[in-house]
Amino acid sequence: MEEQLKTDFLEGMSRAATFVAVATTDGHRGRYGVTVSSMTSVSTEGDYPSLLICVHYMGMAASAMLANRGFCLNLLNEDQRDIANLFAGRDSDDHEERFDQLKWKTSPKGHPMIDGAVANFECQMATELWWKTHHIIVGEVTSVRLSDDSRPLLYGGRSYQRAVAIEG
Ligand SMILES: Cc1cc2nc3c(=O)[nH]c(=O)nc-3n(C[C@H](O)[C@H](O)[C@H](O)COP(=O)(O)O)c2cc1C
Known about the structure:
Layout: H1 3-14, E1 18-19, E2 21-25, E3 32-36, E4 40-43, E5 50-56, H2 60-68, E6 70-75, H3 81-86, H4 95-99, E7 104-106, E8 112-114, E9 119-131, E10 134-146, E11 153-156, E12 159-162
Antiparallel strand pairs: 1-11, 2-3, 2-6, 4-5, 5-10, 6-9, 7-8, 9-10, 11-12
The structure holds flavin mononucleotide (FMN).
């Protein structure tokens, strides 16, 4: 790939503000979590709504989500930057230990639901595409928990942001 194309691509993408979520999973492959900004709503057709995330194939979380056949997508509140950093591996490499540092409950299908997240989407694995460095994982949402506080954490311009309404 031409170096300038890659640089321009990364700079262009850094200008997109995205939501910040932690995808968590538990099951026979163990308990893992990873911070993702790649969450996208896909469809409300069919028996369940669906969403997708893109997760790097090298991380433990991706293979655990695939093996456990499900995950919970925890859409973080603007006050949860510490949790985003924790699950981005910035403070600790031990996934089990990360879960000791926050409050969470077990979802109906057994995945960690992070307390205080603006929404918790519990997903069963629907399909997956391995594209170069990332697994594009589509989950069917089997349950949603909503918090009273709906201010989401954003990431854009290479830093955390909050959404501010534009008047008029
Ligand atoms: C704001 C933010 C968004 C991120 N989004 C993604 C993402 O969508 N997909 C991904 O694979 N990694 C993403 N990462 C990086 C992973 O969180 C990080 O590389 C990973 O947790 C480190 O691997 P480990 O959990 O095995 O330590 C993001 C990190 C941050 C801080």
